[in-house]
Amino acid sequence: MAGDIGQEPLKIIKTILLLALPVVIENFFQMILGFVDTLFVSKLGLIEVSSVGVTNAILAIYLAIFMAIGISANVYVAKYSGAGNDEKVKEVTAQAIILALLSGIIFGLITLFLSDELLKLMGVEEEVLSSANSYFRIIAIPSIFISLMFVLSSVLRGKGDTKSPMKISIFINLLNIVLDYVLIFGFFLIPAFGLEGAAYATLFSRLVGSFWLVIDLRREGLIEWRMSLWRINKKVQLEMISLSSPAAAERLAMRLGQVLYFGFIVSIGTNTFAAHQIAGNIEVFAYMIGYGFATAATILVSKNFGSGKHDEANMYAKYSLWIGTVIMSFFGLLLFLGAEWLGSFFTHDPGVLKDIKIALQIDAFIQPVLAIVLILTGVYQGAENTKYPFYLTLAGMWLIRTGGVYVLGMTLGMGIAGIWLAIGLDNLYRAIFLIKNFKNGKWMKERSVPADDPAVS
């Protein structure tokens, strides 16, 4: 076989790790710094914490759209980069930026005119509404910077550069923490702005990040100010929307499903919900690993499809899957052995701590399955096949997970054990079907463009 398929396994592993680890590190820093950010806001009071929480719940819907556009940009930039078509890479970059700008403006206008209504839909109480509305408008009216951050970072990753987005993300998160402290509590001649200060800190950090990413893209030669590139290309736009729509729908299905089964968990009991939330916060670190290897798989699969090397794409997919699964399985072992110790960082309530231990020890066995779901979803996206993971997520989240929480957690009275068994069954169902289609080759879409395809030239 030609190309990279003949290279040594260690070289393949190194290639995957060089792409995956910066994404894992970036996500890790975002989590740690996010905790610090939340800590500052918590010093202001419960109303402020509630305001941030409800705003983030609405922003999760915005982010689902922006992340999906980022997936399209990542896939097509990697694909045409692999084909050696620099002109097409520049065109896709320009069209992705246009789509990011348009989506950012649309969601900004939605926030400008409907912020009150959106917050009331979330069930915000009167005493929280004013504070939440002020924070939400400062954060989300300039949604253009959120969309640009996602899409510009994805373009760089598609080109194979995962280090630059990592460095920029770490810097702006550190900047956000410094600005949080100064603008929330005041410093020297600068007055304290309270919750609005936290919003302005986030906005300024995103502004800096967006401009830095543009500079990096310009330096890499991915952005050129030629009118021919910046005219709206309907064909490219439709291709990107077609690829991103199922990915966006998948994330929205997850979010909406979470809202429903969270309601079931709350009805079981406050302590059970608290234990579930804490266990979920601990498990997030596993997701960072999975998303890192999923990103590497998406880039390498797209790039090799672009150059017509389907065997190499398949090889990189397999190696990414095995490496990520082994690492997440090891993380699962740590969860099983350290469940109670990890829970003790969040609470000393014996009942809640017991539930956290049960949840994490069940979750330990879910980790290899979760790795398969996350990484193979990235593989499918690299092959421009976003519909199949969406269908599986829709059925898994709404039937198996939500139904499982209701039956096992509530009806059969299994509590926290029933909840996490339902989560495991959902992931197992998706993993089985993703692997089945992966093994029989149905994950590869026929429209993946080989290097000598005239459409690429």
Give structural notes:
- It comes from Cytobacillus oceanisediminis.
- One of its GO terms (molecular function) is antiporter activity.
- Multidrug efflux pump.
- With 457 residues, this protein is an all-alpha fold.
- It folds into 2 domains: 215 residues, no CATH class; 207 residues, no CATH class.
- It contains 14 helices and no strands.
- The longest helix has 37 residues.
- The two termini are 25 Å apart.
- The N terminus and C terminus are likely disordered.
Key attributes of the depicted protein:
disordered C terminus; 14 helices; mainly alpha; globular
Number of domains: 2
What integer is the average pLDDT? 86
Strand content range: under 5%
Q: Give me the strand/helix succession.
A: HHHHHHHHHHHHHH
Taking Cα atoms only, what radius of gyration do you get, to the nearest Å?
Answer: 22 Å
Number of strands: 0
Low-confidence stretches: 1-6, 446-457
Give the fraction of residues assigned to helices. Answer: over 70%
- Helix tally equals 14
* First-to-last CA distance: 25 Å
Largest sheet: none
What structural category arises from helix and sheet content?
mainly alpha
- Globally, the shape reads globular
